């Protein structure tokens, strides 16, 4: 697509809202010929949820200056606030500086903890799933049940109603735990809750 569009001088704008990681996508897609690439400022960049990042060719991006409503008039209420701009800039700088190999190893370690727990469990079988739901090169854990007496929806309900409340959901018959969204120590809390549910319901 990029090759054909380039030959015809047709701009290509890529919706890459959830396509980091890998961090290289922040520059790789434009290097391959995309005119502009759009990323969510939230999601894995972890900047302001109301922000977004556009990268691309300077002359093309210059057109956005005329439509970003920072002057008075209709649409001014839709302008991006200074707080979002600074927050997103900081998020991008931190994301690029992050040790992504170290982070990937941490994610894999959390999944190994869950799998190790399930090997001692009568109720759960937990397996590594790759890639994640957005096609990102990050693994996640899928929870399966060894018993037919309970459903994945039962587990979701118990996790939500417990203390602390843990929100998950069943997606097309699958239940995942994604360490990308967790902090240090939180996988242990999830394991504790899963253990309590097993003891209470089996």
UniProtKB/TrEMBL annotation:
Q: Where are the transmembrane segments?
A: none
Q: Which UniProt keywords are listed? A: Pyridoxal phosphate
InterPro entries associated with the record: PyrdxlP-dep_Trfase, PyrdxlP-dep_Trfase_major
Single annotated GO MF: L-seryl-tRNA(Sec) selenium transferase activity
Q: Does the keyword DNA damage apply?
A: no
- Enumerate the cofactors the protein uses: pyridoxal 5'-phosphate
| Protein's recorded name | L-seryl-tRNA(Sec) selenium transferase
Q: Which organism is it from?
A: hydrothermal vent metagenome
């Amino acid at each position: 697509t990029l090759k054909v569009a380039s030959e015809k001088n047709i701009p290509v704008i890529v919706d890459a809202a959830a396509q980091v990681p890998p961090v290289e996508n922040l520059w790789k897609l434009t290097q391959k010929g995309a005119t502009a690439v759009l990323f969510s400022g939230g999601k894995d960049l972890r900047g302001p949820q109301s922000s977004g990042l556009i990268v691309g060719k300077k002359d093309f991006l210059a057109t956005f200056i005329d439509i970003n409503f920072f002057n008075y008039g209709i649409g001014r209420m839709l302008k991006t606030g200074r707080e979002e701009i600074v927050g997103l800039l900081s998020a991008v700088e931190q994301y690029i500086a992050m040790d992504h190999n170290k982070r990937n190893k941490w994610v894999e370690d959390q999944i190994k903890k869950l799998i190790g727990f399930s090997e001692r469990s009568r109720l759960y079988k937990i397996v590594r799933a790759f890639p994640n739901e957005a096609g990102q090169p990050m693994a996640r854990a899928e929870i399966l049940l060894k018993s037919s007496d309970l459903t994945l929806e039962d587990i979701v309900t118990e996790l939500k109603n417990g203390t602390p409340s843990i929100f998950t959901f069943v997606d097309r018959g699958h239940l995942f735990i994604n360490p990308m969204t967790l902090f240090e120590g939180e996988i242990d809390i999830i394991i504790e809750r899963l253990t309590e549910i097993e003891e209470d319901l089996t």
